[in-house]
């Protein structure tokens, strides 16, 4: 599957999640206000945050495909990680912080909570569970079918959001049911706080992954070792002094090697050797679209 087809499937997955979250966010908000349920309002904020984040992810998929230009000679592949980072911030602020507020506000409230509308609220959560579950199954299906799906920050974010949404709905339902049975608001407040903790954790994990890629992360050690083995096997190379790699996007990798050639090559032969080795690397690993060789006298270690 090429990158264009893969991005098309990711875009569909994000759109499915966006449509589900928009409808669910409105339903949860109406049900939460009617029932006065902090857990349901926390889930409404969660779905609203997810909806905003899916817009970010659609931008990420579209903008990361722009070709290189004079200002960005290595392309726009890191756009995916930038928008994924914003999505993580959105989950933390709109989802996690609001859930904490609802939970602690409910704990500090002196008035008796009305149970009117709780049945309708539970019905809304049941529908939300089915919708979020369907969106999650779509994301899991694409992850299994797409070879590099686990490396796609847009797909990973949708998968994390949908998984968290399913867990959040179950927590909210448990809190509301226990509140109805016992008459103690602490159960529902605890559910809101638990939802907040869950969202903060997911936001931290997604944000850390995006940060690592924005700073510049090397390729997997296995791939790096294979590239080094290929360089070591070249008869013209006497020693590989250094090999540096960096992920520029899902299908774009920078490879820079400092090598010492065997003696006896003139300048024209050095150029031909470099061109051949670069082509060999790019053919073996098409994602290595930026290959640089620095010819230097390096002592063998």
Basic shape: elongated
Give the overall pLDDT as a whole number: 82
Stretches with pLDDT under 50, minimum 5 residues: none
**Percentage beta strand:** 5-15%
Layout of strands and helices, then pairs:
Blueprint: H1 3-35, H2 38-63, H3 79-108, H4 118-145, H5 153-182, H6 186-215, H7 221-232, E1 237-249, E2 252-261, H8 267-284, E3 290-295
Helix pairs in contact: 1-2, 1-4, 1-5, 2-3, 2-5, 2-6, 3-6, 4-5, 5-6
Give a written overview of the molecule.
The chain is mainly alpha-helical and 301 residues long. The chain has a 3-stranded mixed β-sheet, covered by helices on one side. A hairpin with a 2-residue loop joins strand 1 and strand 2. Helix 2 runs antiparallel to helix 3. The chain is elongated and about 90 Å long.
Short descriptors:
single chain, 301 residues, mainly alpha, 69% helix
In short:
The protein has 301 residues and is mainly α. The chain has helices at 3-35, 38-63, 79-108, 118-145, 153-182, 186-215, 221-232, 267-284, and strands at 237-249, 252-261, 290-295.
């Amino acid at each position: 599957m090429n990158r264009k087809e893969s991005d098309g499937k990711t875009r569909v997955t994000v759109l499915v999640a966006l449509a589900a979250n928009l409808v669910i966010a409105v339903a949860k908000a109406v049900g939460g206000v009617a029932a006065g349920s902090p857990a349901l309002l926390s889930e409404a904020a969660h779905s609203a945050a997810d909806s905003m984040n899916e817009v970010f992810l659609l931008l990420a998929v579209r903008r990361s495909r722009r070709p290189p230009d004079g200002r960005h000679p290595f392309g726009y592949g890191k756009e995916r990680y930038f928008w994924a980072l914003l999505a993580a911030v959105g989950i933390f602020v709109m989802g996690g912080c609001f859930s904490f507020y609802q939970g602690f506000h409910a704990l500090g409230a002196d008035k008796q909570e009305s149970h009117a509308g709780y049945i309708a609220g539970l019905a809304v959560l049941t529908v939300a569970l089915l919708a979020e579950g369907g969106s999650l199954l779509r994301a899991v299906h694409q992850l299994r079918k797409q070879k590099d799906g686990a490396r796609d920050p847009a797909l990973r974010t949708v998968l994390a959001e949908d998984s968290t949404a399913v867990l959040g709905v179950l927590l909210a339902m448990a809190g509301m049911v226990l509140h109805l049975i016992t008459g103690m608001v602490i159960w529902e407040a605890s559910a809101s706080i638990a939802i907040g903790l869950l969202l903060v954790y997911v936001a931290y994990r997604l944000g850390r992954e995006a940060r690592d890629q924005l700073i510049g992360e090397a390729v997997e050690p296995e791939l790096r070792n294979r590239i080094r083995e290929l360089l070591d096997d070249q008869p013209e190379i006497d020693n590989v002094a250094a090999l540096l790699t960096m992920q520029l996007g899902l299908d774009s990798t920078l490879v820079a090697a400092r090598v010492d050639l065997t003696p006896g090559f003139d300048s024209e032969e050095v150029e031909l050797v470099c061109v051949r080795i670069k082509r060999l690397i790019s053919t073996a690993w098409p994602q290595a679209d930026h290959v640089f060789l620095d010819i230097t006298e390096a002592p063998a270690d």
